[in-house]
Amino acid sequence: MSSRATFRCRHILLCLLLAVSVLAPASVPAAPATAPADAGGKRISRVVVTGNERTSANRILGQMRLREGSVYSSEAVDEDLKRIYALGEFDNVVVRPTEEGGRLVLEVKVTERPVLGSVEFVGNKHFSNKDLAETVGVAAGRLVDQHRIVTGSRSIEEKYRAAGYLFAKATLDQALLDRERIARYTITEGPLVRLAKIVFVGNHSIPSRELRGKTETWTWYPLLNTGQYNEELMQRDLMTIRNYYIEQGFLDVRVDREMQFNTDRTRLTVRIIIDEGPRYHVRSVALEGVERFNRGLLRKQMELQPGTPYTSTEVRHDVKLIQDTYGEIGYIDAFVQPVTDFGEQPGIVDVTMRVEEGKAVRIGQIRIEGNQITKDRVVRRDLKVYPGEPVNTVQIEKARRRLDGLGIFKPGSVQVTTVATADPTVRDVVVRVAETETANLILGAGISSNSGVIGNLSFVQRNFDLTGWPRSADELARGEAFRGGGQLFQIVLEPGTELQRYRIDFREPSLFDTGVSLSTSGFYFDRERDHYDERRIGGSLGFGKEIREDLHAFINFRYENIGIRNLDTLIPQDLRDVAGTSALTSIEVGLIKDTTDSYFFPTEGYRVRGSVEQAGAMGGDYTFTKFQIDARKYWTVTRDVLDRRSVLSLKGQVGYIASDAPIFERFYVGGIGSIRGFEYRGVGPREFDTPLGGDFLALASAEYSFPIVEKTLTGVLFIDTGTVSRQVSLSTWRVSVGAGIRFTVPLLGPVPFAFDFGFPLLKDDEDETEVFSFSIGTTF
User: Fold this and answer.
1) Which residue from 125, 516, 716, 780 has the least number of CB within 10 angstroms?
2) What is the pLDDT of residue 752?
3) Looking at the predicted structure, is the pLDDT value of residue 709 above 80?
4) Would the pLDDT of 279 be above 80?
5) Which structural domain range is residue 729 located in?
6) d(CA 533, CA 571)
7) pTM for the model
8) What is the bridge-based pairing of β-strands 499-508 and 362-369?
9) Does residue 60 sit within a domain?
10) Dihedral sign of CA atoms 574, 580, 583, 588 in order
11) Cβ atoms 48, 60 nearer than 8 A
C-alpha cells in the first residue's frame, strides 16, 4: 500500500473515532452545588462552617439565628454577619446559600485574624517599653488589630509631644508585621523642648501682662512649671484671647501664633500675633417696648452711651440693669434682647434694647424644701421676702446669697425660684437647700513667727440649737441633738510653747426672731512675752442689729481679769504700774458696712468697721476711750478660665486712745497682719527693750495676690506702711515692701501655709526688723 493510501486510512479512522466520542452515551458526574436563583423563604437543611482553625464551629454557630430548619432571608444573614464579626476574631466572613440535590445549604466561610507574635520598640529612652505598649494598646499573643497597631504610631507621638518632645517620630514596620506578625516601632525622640517665652505682637490696646493673665499656658520655671508645650491648650488660649478682645469691642480681631525654636530646638518661643482691627464704638442707643419707666432716665443709668466703646461687659450690664429694674416691681418675666446694627462706617454700631415687659406678679406661698434638720424659721429669717409682696428678683438673688453664706448648706446648693400658680398674677417662691455637715472636730498644730508652736483642738457646730435637747442617749450619740437652729457654738483649746488660749463662743443670729443678734464668749489667755507673762480671764456679751442692707450696728460688753507676773528686773515703769492682778470692763458700740462677696476670701466690694469703746463704764481699774476705724477695699483685676482671680486689696486702719490706757491695751505694730519686715510688736517706742505700745495707730497697705499653680499656690506682692506712737504723730512713718506665697497641701487638709519676705524702706532706730515671717496652721 502506498504512503498516500496509508495516510487516507488513518484520517478516516480518526474521523470515525471522533464521531463515536460525540454520539456515544457517556457516564454523567453528579451536578456541583450551585447558588439558587432565589433562596428567600426556603428552609435550610444544613449549615457548614469552613476556614476556622482556632475558633470552633459551635462558637460561630452559637452567634447565628439561621440554623438547620430555619427559613432563609437576607435580613437574617445581615444580622448573623454582625454577630459573628462582633466576636472580634475574623478579618472576613462570607455567608452564602447553595443548593445540593435540591436542598438549601448555608455555607459560612471565615478568615481568622492572625495572632500577634511580639511588640517591639526601638530607640525609646524617655518612656519604657511597658509605658509605650500601654499607649498603643496591643500585646503579643492577642489577635492582630490592624487599625490599632497602625494608629499606635500616632498615639506614641502624641505621648511624647505631651511630655515636651515636639519632634518625636514613631514609624511602624508594616512589612515585618505582614510577614512575621511582629509590630516593631522605631522611635526618634528628638530633643526635649521647653517653652521659654511667650511674646505678644500687635496688641497695641491691651497690655501683654493683662493678656497673659487670660491664658493657661505657662513658660518654664524651675520647680514651679515644666514648660511643656501643649498645642490643644495653646489653641484654647488663642480662642480665649480672641474672645477677650471681642468683649472689649474689637469685633474684627484675628489671633494666631508662630513658633520659633533655638538652634538645637530645645527652647521654644511662641509669638502670639494679634491683628486688633478697629475698636467699635456706640453711635446711638435706643429703647423699644419700654412703657413702665421713663426711657430717658433709664437710658442715663446704662453704661452704653453714644461715643463709648462697645463691649460685651457693658451690654450684659445694661441687659441686667433693665431686667433688675423691672424685676424690682414684680415684672419678673421682662425679656430684654440687645440688637446691634453695624453702620456703613467701620467701627460704628447702633444698639437697640428691645423689651417685652410682661405682667407684674406678687408672691403667693413660700415653700422650703430639702431642710431635714434646719428649721424653717432659720431659712425664712434670711429670706426677707414675704407673701403678698411684688416678686422682687433683686431681693431674691440677695436672699440666695445670704442663705448660701450661712455655711449650713452645701456651697452653691441654695436655689430660690418662682413657680406659676393657677392665678397668672401670683407666683409661689420655692427655696431648695441641700444640708451639709456643720459640725467640725479639728485636731492639729501650727507654728508662726508671732506665737511659736501651738496646738489646736476645736469643736465647731455652725447649725447649733440651744433648745434642741436630746430625747434619748442614742439621739445624742448620733449627733441629732442640739442641731438645726442656725446658731454657732464653738470650743477652742490651743496650748502652746509661748501662747495658751482657750475659749467658748456662742452666737444667735436672731434672738427670739426679733432680728437682734446675740454673741457671747468666755476665754482664758496666757502668753509668755519677752520680759513678763500676761494672763487674761474674762468674757464678752454682744448684740447686733441690721439697720439696712449691708449695714449693721453692734454693742459689746467686756469683762477681763488681767494678771501681769514674772517681771524681769529691768522693766519700764508702765509695766510696773500694772503688775499683779487687775480688772477691766468696757462697752463698745459701732457700725459695720460690708459689701464684700465673701467674708473669708473677698474678691470684690468693701468692708468698713468703726467703733468707740469706753473702758471703765461698768467699773474696773482702768478708764480710757478707744476709737478705731478699719476699712478694706477689694478689686478683681483678672480672672482666668479656671476662675482663679488676681485680687488687689487696699487696707487702712486708724486708732486713737484718749486718756491713759494700760500697757496691755495699747496699740502694737509689727509682724504678720501689721507691717511685715518688722518683728512682732517690733515697731514703736521701747524702753529696756520692752515694747511700750502707743495711743495712736495708723496703718495703710496694698496687696496684690495672684494664682501660680492651680488653686493651691498663690503669690502676693505687698507694701505695708504705718506708725504707732504715744501721741498723734506721723513723723516716724514706716514703709516696707515684699513678696510672699500662700499655699495648702491637700494631704494635710485645709492647712494654710504663709511665707512672707518683707524689706523695710523706712524705719526708726529702735525698731526691730525681721525679713522673713511665716505661719503654718492657724493664723494667729
Assistant:
1) 125
2) 63
3) no
4) yes
5) 666-780
6) 12
7) 0.63
8) unpaired
9) yes
10) positive
11) no
